[in-house]
Amino acid sequence: MRIIVDAYGGDNAPDAVLLGCRMAADRWKCEIILTGDEQKLRQRAAELSVSLEGISIADAPDVIPVEAEPTSILKQYQQSSMARGLQMLANGEGEAFVSAGSTGALVVGGTLIVKRLKGVKRPAIGTVIPCRGGCFLLLDSGANHDCRPEMLRQFGLMGSVYMKRIIGVPNPRVGLVNIGTEETKGTELQVQAYQLMKEAGYNFIGNVEAREVPLGGCDVAVCDGFTGNILLKTMEGLATLFMGELKAIFMKSLPNKLAAAAVKKDIKGLKNQFDSAEYGGALLLGSRSPVIKAHGSSDAKAFYNAIRQAISCCENNIIGEIESQLVAQTEEN
Amino acid sequence: MRIIVDAYGGDNAPDAVLLGCRMAADRWKCEIILTGDEQKLRQRAAELSVSLEGISIADAPDVIPVEAEPTSILKQYQQSSMARGLQMLANGEGEAFVSAGSTGALVVGGTLIVKRLKGVKRPAIGTVIPCRGGCFLLLDSGANHDCRPEMLRQFGLMGSVYMKRIIGVPNPRVGLVNIGTEETKGTELQVQAYQLMKEAGYNFIGNVEAREVPLGGCDVAVCDGFTGNILLKTMEGLATLFMGELKAIFMKSLPNKLAAAAVKKDIKGLKNQFDSAEYGGALLLGSRSPVIKAHGSSDAKAFYNAIRQAISCCENNIIGEIESQLVAQTEEN
Predict the structure, then answer these.
(1) The complex's ipTM?
(2) What sections of chain B are H helices per DSSP?
(3) pLDDT of residue A332
(4) Count of CB atoms situated within 10 Å of the CB of B75
(5) Which residues make beta-bridge pairs with B137?
(6) Model's pTM, two decimal places?
(7) Where are the alpha helices (DSSP H) in B122-224?
(8) Dihedral angle computed from the Cα positions of residues A298, A301, A305 and A306, in that order, rounded to the nearest 10 degrees
(9) Residue B248 C-alpha, separation from nearest chain A C-alpha, in angstroms
(10) What SS3 class is residue B130?
(11) Which positions in chain A touch B181 (Cβ < 8 Å)?
(12) Mean pLDDT, chain A, as a whole number?
């Protein structure tokens, strides 16, 4: 299996990418293709003493900046490490692509270079997030700010396939993120989406309030990309605040420091539970081949996990399953 | 000062209301007027041994259910404890009103019975929420799902007055909750609101990502009511999850239990920091007299705090200040 990885995406590129790819190549004996400036990458790998055995490099002289217009990946930055990777994926020169670069550019490139599966209205970013008792998939978590009701219906289908195939939840509970549980709650978008999702053929459990989402209220949390971003980032911010306050408590006095020593391992476990690196990346659901968006602040371990996720998507044929379910649904209607 | 309190709003009514009002009447020597079924209230007060000294009762035979259509407060439920309280406030028979009942009904009643200040497009619910280093005001946190850009501009003004007058922040930083910091981020609503808020005359600091909100990124977080509900409820859910996980860690083993004993007081402090009861209620900003929405699950202490907040709104003339700033802004334009 060949996984293409953008060597120049994310805050810690290319060092974290090189280290993460090395770990992944050692662990799974997969073939890794890095995209980026070949000369610089070879030099940096040598400086870090990272062997490139099993890792090849596809030269791409340019890097797309995070603040660039997303559509610039199609023109101005078509020589960038991200664009090159997406083109290779589209050409079948690899089975999946991982990048920690600009989300917007990756969505545009995933949609227009890799292209959508037949019948997919808009791809969505699905992010696996820890919650009480496990994890849930949030989608869309940032690809489409404005959504139509039929897009949300489709997000539910794609998310359901992901949770079943990748996470192993037998009959994923699909919830519509809303401000109340009654059918009539929310804006026009939620009211209409509710009616479509009721008939969508997956396990739709109705509206789920944001309060219930971190408490494990559903396995697939469906919303527009604006709402998804708000939900995801609020969780990130509060988790950071909480761990900071906890640390301050444990550093406050000698008795507290001794107490900290006793529970250190468990608190570390709690921290890891809410650490985005633990869950790998987010998947662009609806593209023709797996495109994984790693967190911008990804370290080596996060890249390693994102590559694991890419392999898992391929092995479990997530794209094929989404495609056949979409076909089944189209035939029904 | 006369504070009107809905005796039959919230999950713990009327017991928590009676107890909270007793505490408030003792502490501040304010006059409290309870609305609700007089006979039942007197009986329950006697059963709880709660003295009604300084507390009068305005009889209202009915109660508006949480699930009722919000507009039913104007017709079907105009004999309810909430409607009666709002009518008394409108008639000047009290200076402020507190209720833990249906948010929707309270917004409709606050808007159409108490009425809006001249120039106010739509009242917003402002909720004071703990964050790193203090607290911030989130508005709208649920009154208006759909908002126009000029409504958000006005929310910023009202929120700024609140944080200055009630919380004592000298020059409140008003942020627009968004999915990125650049001016062009978000949906049409945020893009247009940004331009209006830039010229609004208060301390607008631009877009604030949801991640930064719990970390103290602004003093006033402005958004539509749908987004505000998502942000607020996500924080509630995650805080509940965290405290639960922490409790589980501290109960796990004997060494952990001993550790817990050492930090118990500090952890309690952390819990209180994220406990909605600590911050009293939410204010309906834009109505002609202060209308306070207490949390549906309010206990006696929460009612006590909500009454304190009502008194503070009156003493600091929050309504007059919003009114004069609205007039100043209208004259400018």
Answers:
(1) 0.91
(2) 15-28, 38-47, 81-90, 103-109, 149-162, 188-198, 225-251, 254-273, 300-315, 318-332
(3) 65
(4) 9
(5) B128, B220
(6) 0.92
(7) 149-162, 188-198
(8) 30
(9) 10
(10) strand
(11) none
(12) 93
